[in-house]
Amino acid sequence: TDTSAKHLHKVDGFFSDAAIKILMPEEAKKAEATLRKMGMSPVVDKAILSMNRAAEDAAGEITPIFVNAIKGMTLTDGLAILRGGDFAATDYLKKNTTAQLTEKMRPVIEKSLAAVDATKYWKDLTTAYNTVAFGKKPINTDLTAYVTERAMSGIFYSIGQQEALIRKDP
Known about the structure:
Layout: H1 2-9, H2 29-37, H3 41-58, H4 63-71, H5 75-83, H6 88-115, H7 118-132, H8 143-168
Protein backbone atom coordinates (compact mmCIF):
# COMPACT_ATOMS: atom_id res chain seq x y z
CA THR A 1 0.00 0.00 0.00
CA ASP A 2 2.85 2.36 0.81
CA THR A 3 4.53 1.77 -2.57
CA SER A 4 1.26 2.34 -4.42
CA ALA A 5 0.41 5.47 -2.43
CA LYS A 6 3.83 7.02 -3.03
CA HIS A 7 3.72 6.21 -6.74
CA LEU A 8 0.19 7.50 -7.28
CA HIS A 9 0.61 10.66 -5.20
CA LYS A 10 3.34 12.07 -7.44
CA VAL A 11 2.84 14.09 -10.62
CA ASP A 12 1.74 11.76 -13.43
CA GLY A 13 1.11 8.91 -10.98
CA PHE A 14 -2.30 8.42 -12.57
CA PHE A 15 -1.92 10.44 -15.75
CA SER A 16 1.06 8.55 -17.19
CA ASP A 17 -0.22 5.06 -16.31
CA ALA A 18 -2.46 3.85 -19.15
CA ALA A 19 -4.01 1.16 -16.94
CA ILE A 20 -5.42 3.63 -14.42
CA LYS A 21 -5.44 7.00 -16.22
CA ILE A 22 -8.79 8.66 -15.67
CA LEU A 23 -10.48 9.34 -18.99
CA MET A 24 -13.82 10.85 -19.80
CA PRO A 25 -16.74 8.73 -18.60
CA GLU A 26 -18.07 6.29 -21.16
CA GLU A 27 -21.34 8.18 -21.47
CA ALA A 28 -19.37 11.37 -22.32
CA LYS A 29 -17.30 9.86 -25.15
CA LYS A 30 -19.67 11.17 -27.83
CA ALA A 31 -19.55 14.67 -26.34
CA GLU A 32 -15.75 14.40 -26.15
CA ALA A 33 -15.52 13.38 -29.82
CA THR A 34 -17.76 16.27 -30.84
CA LEU A 35 -15.67 18.77 -28.88
CA ARG A 36 -12.47 17.43 -30.45
CA LYS A 37 -14.00 17.76 -33.94
CA MET A 38 -14.83 21.36 -33.13
CA GLY A 39 -11.15 22.06 -32.41
CA MET A 40 -11.57 21.98 -28.65
CA SER A 41 -9.07 19.18 -27.97
CA PRO A 42 -7.00 21.39 -25.64
CA VAL A 43 -10.07 21.93 -23.44
CA VAL A 44 -10.82 18.20 -23.32
CA ASP A 45 -7.16 17.40 -22.64
CA LYS A 46 -7.11 19.93 -19.80
CA ALA A 47 -10.22 18.35 -18.30
CA ILE A 48 -8.64 14.89 -18.43
CA LEU A 49 -5.40 16.20 -16.92
CA SER A 50 -7.29 17.96 -14.12
CA MET A 51 -9.18 14.77 -13.23
CA ASN A 52 -5.90 12.87 -12.96
CA ARG A 53 -4.20 15.63 -10.95
CA ALA A 54 -7.10 15.58 -8.50
CA ALA A 55 -6.69 11.80 -8.07
CA GLU A 56 -2.94 12.24 -7.57
CA ASP A 57 -3.60 14.85 -4.87
CA ALA A 58 -6.05 12.57 -3.10
CA ALA A 59 -3.65 9.61 -3.15
CA GLY A 60 -1.60 11.43 -0.53
CA GLU A 61 -4.40 10.87 1.98
CA ILE A 62 -4.70 7.09 1.79
CA THR A 63 -1.79 5.56 3.72
CA PRO A 64 -3.19 6.03 7.27
CA ILE A 65 -6.46 4.38 6.24
CA PHE A 66 -4.63 1.31 4.97
CA VAL A 67 -2.40 1.20 8.06
CA ASN A 68 -5.49 1.18 10.29
CA ALA A 69 -7.08 -1.60 8.24
CA ILE A 70 -3.91 -3.68 8.48
CA LYS A 71 -3.61 -3.06 12.24
CA GLY A 72 -7.25 -4.09 12.64
CA MET A 73 -6.69 -7.37 10.84
CA THR A 74 -7.56 -10.51 12.80
CA LEU A 75 -5.64 -13.77 12.72
CA THR A 76 -8.51 -15.23 10.70
CA ASP A 77 -8.20 -12.38 8.19
CA GLY A 78 -4.45 -12.96 7.91
CA LEU A 79 -4.87 -16.67 7.31
CA ALA A 80 -7.57 -16.04 4.71
CA ILE A 81 -5.22 -13.65 2.88
CA LEU A 82 -2.32 -16.06 3.11
CA ARG A 83 -4.39 -18.95 1.77
CA GLY A 84 -6.44 -16.79 -0.59
CA GLY A 85 -6.10 -16.04 -4.25
CA ASP A 86 -3.69 -13.73 -5.98
CA PHE A 87 -5.56 -10.62 -4.84
CA ALA A 88 -6.82 -11.69 -1.41
CA ALA A 89 -5.02 -8.87 0.43
CA THR A 90 -6.26 -6.30 -2.09
CA ASP A 91 -9.80 -7.63 -1.74
CA TYR A 92 -9.51 -7.44 2.07
CA LEU A 93 -8.34 -3.82 1.86
CA LYS A 94 -11.07 -2.92 -0.63
CA LYS A 95 -13.73 -4.42 1.62
CA ASN A 96 -12.40 -2.72 4.75
CA THR A 97 -11.36 0.71 3.47
CA THR A 98 -13.65 1.78 0.62
CA ALA A 99 -16.03 3.84 2.78
CA GLN A 100 -13.19 5.59 4.63
CA LEU A 101 -11.24 6.20 1.42
CA THR A 102 -14.27 7.75 -0.23
CA GLU A 103 -14.86 9.99 2.77
CA LYS A 104 -11.20 11.08 2.88
CA MET A 105 -10.57 11.42 -0.85
CA ARG A 106 -13.77 13.09 -2.05
CA PRO A 107 -13.11 16.50 -0.42
CA VAL A 108 -9.52 16.54 -1.71
CA ILE A 109 -10.66 15.69 -5.23
CA GLU A 110 -13.48 18.22 -5.04
CA LYS A 111 -11.07 20.96 -3.95
CA SER A 112 -8.56 20.07 -6.70
CA LEU A 113 -11.22 20.06 -9.39
CA ALA A 114 -12.75 23.31 -8.12
CA ALA A 115 -9.34 25.03 -8.12
CA VAL A 116 -9.27 24.81 -11.92
CA ASP A 117 -13.06 25.28 -12.32
CA ALA A 118 -13.32 21.72 -13.68
CA THR A 119 -16.51 20.97 -11.73
CA LYS A 120 -18.18 24.15 -12.98
CA TYR A 121 -17.29 23.47 -16.62
CA TRP A 122 -18.23 19.82 -16.29
CA LYS A 123 -21.63 20.63 -14.82
CA ASP A 124 -22.28 23.25 -17.53
CA LEU A 125 -21.20 20.84 -20.27
CA THR A 126 -23.14 17.84 -19.00
CA THR A 127 -26.27 19.83 -18.20
CA ALA A 128 -26.29 21.28 -21.73
CA TYR A 129 -25.67 17.85 -23.27
CA ASN A 130 -28.34 16.18 -21.12
CA THR A 131 -30.85 18.85 -22.17
CA VAL A 132 -30.45 18.10 -25.88
CA ALA A 133 -29.66 14.37 -25.74
CA PHE A 134 -33.23 13.10 -26.01
CA GLY A 135 -33.48 9.36 -25.44
CA LYS A 136 -29.77 8.94 -24.76
CA LYS A 137 -28.24 7.95 -21.45
CA PRO A 138 -27.63 11.17 -19.51
CA ILE A 139 -24.12 12.04 -18.38
CA ASN A 140 -23.60 12.14 -14.61
CA THR A 141 -23.10 15.75 -13.63
CA ASP A 142 -21.19 14.84 -10.43
CA LEU A 143 -17.58 14.96 -11.64
CA THR A 144 -16.22 14.61 -8.10
CA ALA A 145 -18.03 11.31 -7.60
CA TYR A 146 -16.78 10.01 -10.94
CA VAL A 147 -13.15 10.97 -10.29
CA THR A 148 -13.30 9.58 -6.74
CA GLU A 149 -14.62 6.23 -8.00
CA ARG A 150 -12.01 6.04 -10.79
CA ALA A 151 -9.22 7.07 -8.40
CA MET A 152 -10.16 4.32 -5.98
CA SER A 153 -10.26 1.79 -8.81
CA GLY A 154 -6.77 2.91 -9.80
CA ILE A 155 -5.50 2.66 -6.24
CA PHE A 156 -6.80 -0.88 -5.80
CA TYR A 157 -5.45 -1.85 -9.22
CA SER A 158 -2.02 -0.57 -8.20
CA ILE A 159 -2.17 -2.37 -4.85
CA GLY A 160 -3.21 -5.55 -6.65
CA GLN A 161 -0.18 -5.27 -8.93
CA GLN A 162 2.08 -4.87 -5.89
CA GLU A 163 0.43 -7.85 -4.21
CA ALA A 164 1.00 -9.97 -7.32
CA LEU A 165 4.71 -9.07 -7.25
CA ILE A 166 4.98 -9.99 -3.58
CA ARG A 167 3.15 -13.29 -4.06
CA LYS A 168 5.43 -14.11 -7.00
CA ASP A 169 8.60 -13.31 -5.07
CA PRO A 170 8.04 -12.87 -1.31
